Amino acid sequence: MLLLLLFFIFVFVPILQRGKMGAIFIKIIYSVMLLTGILSVGTQKKHFIVLSILAVIALFANWLTEIEPGTPMLIAHDIGAIAFNVFFALALLKKTFGPGEITYHRIVGSIVVYLLMGLIFTYVFHAIYLYQGPSSFNNIIGTGLREFVYFSFTSLSTMGYGDITPVHPLARSLANFEALLGQLYPAILIARLVSMEFEAATHKRDSNQ
Asked: How many domains does the chain have?
């Protein structure tokens, strides 16, 4: 899942989203990501059922945009993608911060959550742009995800080059909120993982005594 997200965000969307074949390839990769997300929480029945339902909705809206690429359908797809990624991120956070030893899978899961945060805001900004029109952002042309992925992750990482700027008040507030999450999440994550490792080491030492 981590590799899929990295390639989707930093390779496929920025480079391949040009022309009919590029758009179809992006949809295929996106579909594989949703299915991988479902399988990654397969051991938790409740999460599996909810994610499956949200994935079906997101996939249906995603492929329907090939037939009806109008604004309402594109916004519907954004909403479906946001719902799926939010629930998926929460499910991973529950597993990451749950009791137990620090493992490789916990570290990977925490990185996936960070990337999902950027992807969630990508779809949020995209939906705002579609609903409010081009005047909601400066220096964005077209309705593709490419510019919104770039803007979202520069906001999340607090790089903020300033070449793309939000104009609509809601977009500005969300960009600030994303930047705040981008700073707080790594700090809280590291503190929590260190605390969990210390607790695990203390419990192991006490058990050996």
From this structure: 1
